Amino acid sequence: KAKKNGRNRIERYESGMMEDAVKRRDLEMDMVRALKEGQFSLNYQPLFNLPTRELVGFEALIRWNHPTLGLVPPVEFIPLAEETGLITEIGEWVLNEACREASHWPGELYVSVNVSPVQLHKTDMLRQVTRALAEHGLTAQRLELELTETAMVDDGRRINATLTALRSLGVRIAMDDFGTGYSSLAHLREFDLDRIKIDRSFIDSAPDDVSSLAVLRAVTMMAKDLSIATTGEGVESEEQLARLLDLGCGTAQGYLLGRPMTAEAARALMQTSDAMQQAVAGIGPGQL
Ligand code: C2E
Ligand code: MG
Ligand code: MG
Ligand code: MG
Predict the structure, then answer these.
(1) Which residue of 71, 124, 183, 255 lies most exposed, with the fewest beta carbons within 10 A?
(2) Is the predicted ipTM greater than 0.90, yes or no?
């Protein structure tokens, strides 16, 4: 009897897995089609200098408008795209699209592009970046690449060589979601970085969360000592913005300052940057 129950359990488990596998395969085929049919687009979230509150650039964030599922957020398809390897094609599309769009922006603004660890390991990023910049006539100084710490884990030496080559072009390298991976601080020494983006969880913490504040303070101080720029991610309140300013963080990003928006809305925002400088403090979430 026990055996029979056990088998049922296994069958249930397996049929669940089968459904999952079918769903994943569907989604995978859908992603292939999405690339061909132009269902992906990029949103742009503004980045502001502290303390001047000037607009300095935008982070490009992928969006998938699925024909039946509607808007699928990146957390739901990027991991699968990484597992199946399709991220290399999606990533190349993102890089090209972001460079194309940024080539229409005023020259002082930069675009920041997320790069998956899989892209870094499986593709020739140096060649891809060189080509994208040349094709769209974008100077390297106007492109920043955001990598997560997981990209640094395997084959650190080869990755480091790639990053060094990219930096010698003039492209800047940022470490995204800083503080969420393990041995974050060790990576600061090991890799040449231009910027760290301090993860939202440290910015977002309650005012009485002493340990998050301590991390925030330590990270900004160390970055300053190492001449690495800092961006605070996920700024949602004036209080958080004031804290970052106080700690000497150089750039801020978050719903308080502007949500991810269409390329068109981003271009409109650039035109009103004068007004922005005065108005941004008073602009609440969702108004941009
Ligand atoms: P990320 O690179 O850390 O991007 C920041 C995420 O935080 C974005 O979510 C953004 O909408 C969100 N965010 C910004 N400000 C705030 C805030 O004030 N509060 C809160 N709660 N959230 C805020 P999104 O667009 O859903 O992207 C999620 C993640 O998906 C990104 O995290 C990145 O890891 C990945 N991703 C997005 N686009 C791409 C891409 O083109 N390529 C790759 N490889 N990954 C991407
Ligand atoms: Mg990012
Ligand atoms: Mg981030
Ligand atoms: Mg993040």
Answers:
(1) 71
(2) yes
Task: List the shell of residues around ion ligand 3, using CB closer than 5 Å.
Answer: 176-177, 197, 233
Answer whether 61 contacts ligand 1 (Cβ < 6 A).
yes
Do the Cβ atoms of 196 and 224 come closer than 8 Å? no
- If we measure between CA atoms, which residue out of 98, 163, 164 comes closest to residue 132? 98
3-state secondary structure of 179: coil
225-228's contacts with Cβ under 8 Å and 24+ in sequence apart are: 226/188, 228/188, 228/193, 228/194, 228/195, 228/196
Q: Which two tokens stand for residue 231?
A: 């961006």
Nearest to 56 by CA among 109, 98, 102, 113: 109
Separation between Cα atoms, residue 39 and residue 71, nearest integer Å? 10
CA distance to 72, 87, 129, 246, 286, per residue, from 119 (Å): 21, 7, 12, 36, 32
The verdict on the CB of residue 114 being under 6 Å from ligand 1 is yes
Q: pLDDT tens-digit profile of 38-48?
A: 999 999 999 99
Which among 30, 33, 39, 27 is positioned nearest to 80, based on CA atoms? Answer: 27
Place of tokens 């309140």: 237
